[in-house]
Amino acid sequence: MSAQLNKYKYIIVPKQFDAFKSPNRHQTSTIIKHLFTKNGFNVVYDDALPVDLANNRCLGLLADLEDNSSLFATKVVIVLKDCQLNEIFRSIEGRSKIKEFRTAYREAVNESFISFEEMNYVYTPSKDEQKKTTDQQPVTVSFKNDVKQLEEKPKEHVIVQEATPENQTYKSVEPKESSYVKTENAEVPSQKGLLYAQPIENGYQLVDSTPKVVMKLMKTSVENIFLVNHDGRNGMLTMQDGKWILEYADGGGKKPKELNIKF
Q: Is the pTM of this model over 0.85?
């Protein structure tokens, strides 16, 4: 009889047997699942079917509990049915005369499981099931050689050209004139003789980059005309053709001098 059960992969235990009005009455579902597992069967509850069993209900047998109890004794039989509810196996009747129901059902169920002891159950799939499992096996692709090839550097293709006068190329290596002009300050270019006008009372004072006061300019009533006192000499600074011209009165006449002033 054990060989007949070997072709079934699962035993399905209901959370509530038809003989009772509530789930796991007297812990019967818990006890039966435990005893099937103890005897080497792959047991699942009817509300937690694995994927393959859910897709193919005929992989498992449904466990049922027949309650033949009387007023004076608890009597149970474990019945296994296939996916078409055909009876495949029936255990011996387990009995108990204990009055407390939970203990009585536990004793009766344990006695009925004598039928499953030493069955040495081992699931043996059918040829069709074996073929289906083989067809579903994933294909293993080895990339070992591919990785080795990737690690190897490709050989460089070298073209050797004969060194003949006709194949020579000459480039001029003479230095080219540069348009780059070096400046001391990129933001304010240096200008020779540049003077800076700083406002003072009644005019300006001109300072160089040191800074040092070079001369003082006194405002006049005419725009862009200043009186100058420089080195004890009196002169006049005027704007002529966009340029600042300094003129001193000298015995030999006026001597003009252009100044580079930034106001």
A: no
